[in-house]
Design brief:
There is one protein chain. The protein has about 110 residues and is mainly beta. It is built from two helices and six strands; from the N terminus they run βββααβββ. It has a five-stranded mixed beta barrel. The radius of gyration is 14 Å and the shape is globular.
Length: about 110
């Protein structure tokens, strides 16, 4: 299993009750939609938990492009097709475009 964190800029849609997200962005000039699970600490911020840090209003997220960090895990199992699982880790800011940055680690 490999995992790496990448920053993306795109339109973010969040379903906090089910801890699901959808990010519409572009990779290498091609539009893509990434879907996955919201990290537990970020879900607590969406819920307004004071111990988790600043509250993030989910109703405002999809109004403009956001810069986010997504952790991607590549699962390679014997006799099974490889699959990718995405986790929304952080909402970084409200739209300053940056080039994707990767930090790869192996587990």
């Amino acid at each position: 299993m490999e995992e790496h964190g990448t920053e993306y800029t795109g339109t973010l849609f969040v379903l906090p009750a089910s801890r699901a997200f959808e990010l519409s962005t572009t990779l290498h000039g091609v539009p893509v939609t990434l879907t996955g699970t919201i990290a537990q600490h970020l879900a607590a911020q969406f819920a307004g938990n004071d111990a988790a840090g600043d509250h993030i209003d989910v109703r405002q997220l999809s109004l403009q492009p956001r810069r986010v960090e997504i952790l991607t895990r590549d699962h390679h199992e014997r006799h099974h097709a490889a699959r990718k699982v995405h986790f929304l880790m952080r909402v970084l800011d409200s739209g300053v475009e940056a080039k994707p940055r990767e930090a790869a680690t192996s587990a």
